[in-house]
Design a protein that fits this description.
alpha+beta; four-stranded antiparallel beta sheet; 8 strands; rod-shaped
Length: about 160
């Protein structure tokens, strides 16, 4: 009787192991996506903080420096694909300080804005790029999930 059940535990373990590995792969993929979202949000926060303290007389130069800073912070977090200058948008709110609405546009040299906004556009993540998901019709890759964080801060200088 015992000889008929030799190896049953190994077969059961193989079935369970496949399911556990698929769950672990899903956790890794979603974790990577959340990591990228958090890193990009931190990059926009650092850029907005930097821009909020930039001298108003040299604010157009500040836009370029802030874009470089956001790209550097994202690169330090190993975000892939790497950000480029076209992904980072720096805008200033040139509306009057008492205005209840925001009016974001280009930063005007010599004009102190009420608020600054740093945003990332055109950045997509392919969920399932490292470990593909398996569905009823085969492999599933959730591609082109857009991550577009932004941070708005009051201009302090």
């Amino acid at each position: 009787m015992r000889t008929q059940q030799v190896g049953v535990a190994a077969v059961e373990f193989a079935f369970v192991l496949v399911i556990l590995l698929l769950i672990m792969a899903g956790v890794v993929e979603f974790g990577r996506t959340f990591w990228y979202a958090d890193a990009l949000t931190k990059a926009t926060r650092d850029g907005a903080r930097m821009m909020s303290m930039w001298e108003a007389s040299d604010i157009s130069n500040g836009v370029t420096k802030v874009q470089d800073r956001v790209i550097a912070v994202a690169a330090a977090a190993n975000v892939s694909p790497a950000l480029v200058g076209a992904n980072v948008t720096v805008q200033c709110d040139n509306s009057p300080p008492a205005s209840p609405t925001f009016s974001f546009g280009a930063c005007s040299p010599g004009t102190a804005p009420a608020n600054v906004r740093v945003s990332i556009t055109g950045f997509t993540v392919n969920l399932g790029a490292w470990f593909p998901f398996i569905g009823p019709d085969g492999l599933i890759s959730l591609s082109n999930i857009s991550l577009s964080p932004h941070t708005t801060m009051r201009y302090m200088n």
